[in-house]
Amino acid sequence: MPTSIQTTGRTYWRLLVAGFRRQSTYRLAALGGLIANTTFGLLKVAILFATVRAAGGDLNGYDIGTISAYIWISQGLLGSINLNGRSDIATRIKDGGIVVDFLRPLDVQAASVATEVGQSIFALIPRGLPTVSIGVLVVGMDVPSAASGYLLGAVSLLLGIVVSSTTVYLVAAAGFWLVETRGLQILYMVVSGFFAGLFVPIDLFPNALRIVAECTPFPSMLMYPVDVLSGRVAGLEALGLVGLQVLWLVLTALAGHLMTRAGRRKLEVQGG
Amino acid sequence: MSTDTPIIETTALGRDFKVRDGVRRRTLTAVDDLDISVAAGEAVGYIGANGAGKSTTIKMLCGILVPTRGSVTTCGLRPVADRRELARQVGVVFGQRTQLWWDLPVRESFTILSAIHGLGAAEEAARTGELVERLELAEFLATPVRQLSLGQRMRAEVAAALLHSPRLVILDEPTIGLDVLSKQRLREFLVAERTTHGTTLLLTTHDMGDVERLCDRVLLVDRGRLVWDGTLAGLSRTVGAQRVLVVDLAESTPDLVDIASTQHLGSEGGGLRQRLAFDPDATTAAKVLAAVSERVEVLDLAVEEPDVEDVVRRVYAARR
């Protein structure tokens, strides 16, 4: 039976929707996440606002309005961008549940990424939007001036979500060889938030460190979407950031594809 | 593909695992020199002790595990190379793993799997309807999988594995942990499914009731090697397993120890019920009954077939 592109699209779309619905069953967890995001947002406001004021109102191009946008958008994305390195597929590789994935006429990597992306998109509703709204209403922040900025921002945000899923998939796929990927996952957790610009925007990094960050996929997950969504970066420069995101998407997806292909031959199903 | 092409064919199939034994590494042979041929429409029980190599074989048949030696074709395909194509023709139930979406209502899993297997809307509705009815899933279709009882979940698992009407259904311990009634329902469903759709069944199990009720052929594997391929009755005969005649007598009778070609196993109720074992090759139940009836009036009788687990034990013991 030949698989048409339409059927394939429908399949992965259904998996994305499944991820979305799955996440929707954890409402209390989402509320907890929202409270945590907002609390840390207010904390960052206190620290970074003071820093910008101490610098005379302009810190490497950031003023109060743009730093506030940085804080609230990045906090809002925390529920959707995977910065902890954990994934369901990693668990399934570890406990042998991965056999079920391989018994389906699917690309295992694409199926996993589609499901994770669906979960991330759902998280925008109870966590992303309310966090940003609180930022706008309570503290105030800069937003893009043109409609095109919002459109490109949405694309950038979606790319950020997908890149975070394809990158976390690499951590999981390492499990084909390592079995126990917790060390790698913890390393990912420590490094990703920092280089993604979660604590401090990467434009405020010392030059050398900024270059290191730019050589990783992490800024594509959070920093670039925040820059485009807040309107701090606009026009051609914003298109450039989106281009970089596409590049990282291709690179991480390709690496994941190759690892899955090699890993499948290496697979020794755990747990009988 | 013509119907006389075997649906499963393995030639000298083998798989080794490297295991770490403290600091030393050694090679463990899980499956060795396995030649199996299963025709379309057969129902085959694949039995053996834990660690005998059953699951390893199944994983090689499905293309999940790469064989170390030998060759395997399933549904005329090469399992590892043609994994996705094969997945459209095979349905697998792993009794210990779930393929349902844990947090979502049961119905959702069927919708997603229908999309995965590219079923059309009409096909999806018809097949889902059939499975829901036969496996009695209607009452919990809207319940999230994580809230199902084990028996309910297993029925849903079987439906999920069979949704795309696979030609070959592989069941790895499908009745593990189920109560008697749930087991019975599941077996009845599998028999019906085979009758209606001509599905080929391969099941591994420790539950000999599964084998007795579902399979017309048994493959017994011991330490990775095939040691029996044939009927269950034939297997019993090879190890001289005995049948048992249980007789209820009209009056208390001394132990019937000297009936020809039998062995007295025991008496109950002061000799009102006695158990006599006999070798089916040496005598028949009718002859034993006749011999007993000459001594005392028989009110009722039952013939017990050999216990399959006992048969397997004997096969293993004979090979050690």
Short description:
The complex is a heterodimer of chains A (272) and B (320). By secondary structure, chain A is mainly α.
Please describe the topology of this protein.
The complex is a heterodimer of chains A (272) and B (320).
Chain A: H1 5-24, H2 27-54, H3 64-77, H4 88-95, H5 98-102, H6 108-139, H7 147-173, H8 175-178, H9 182-195, H10 207-214, H11 218-221, H12 223-230, H13 235-266
Helix pairs in contact in A: 1-6, 2-3, 2-6, 3-6, 3-12, 4-7, 6-7, 7-12, 7-13, 12-13
Chain B: E1 8-21, E2 24-38, E3 43-47, H1 54-62, E4 69-74, H2 83-87, E5 90-94, H3 106-116, H4 121-134, H5 150-162, E6 168-172, H6 180-197, E7 200-204, H7 208-214, E8 217-222, E9 225-230, H8 232-238, E10 243-249, E11 262-268, E12 273-278, H9 285-295, E13 298-304, H10 308-319
Structure description:
- Chain A has helices at residues 5-24, 27-54, 64-77, 88-95, 98-102, 108-139, 147-173, 175-178, 182-195, 207-214, 218-221, 223-230, 235-266.
- Chain A is an all-alpha fold and 272 residues long.
- Chain A has one domain (5-266).
- Chain A is globular, with a radius of gyration of 19 Å.
- Chain A starts with a helix and ends in a 6-residue tail after the last helix.
- Chain B has helices spanning 54-62, 83-87, 106-116, 121-134, 150-162, 180-197, 208-214, 232-238, 285-295, 308-319; strands at residues 8-21, 24-38, 43-47, 69-74, 90-94, 168-172, 200-204, 217-222, 225-230, 243-249, 262-268, 273-278, 298-304.
- Chain B has 320 residues and is an alpha/beta fold.
- Among the domains of chain B are: 1-89 and 166-179 and 204-230, Rossmann fold (3-Layer(aba) Sandwich); 239-319, Alpha-Beta Plaits (2-Layer Sandwich), CATH 3.30.70.
- Chain B is globular, with a radius of gyration of 24 Å.
- Chain A binds chain B through residues 1, 3, 7, 10-11, 13-15, 18, 21-22, 25-26, 96-97, 99-100, 102-106, 264-265, 267-269, 271-272, and chain B through 17, 55, 59, 62-66, 80, 83-85, 87-88, 90, 92, 94, 96-99, 101-104, 108, 111-112, 115-118, 144.
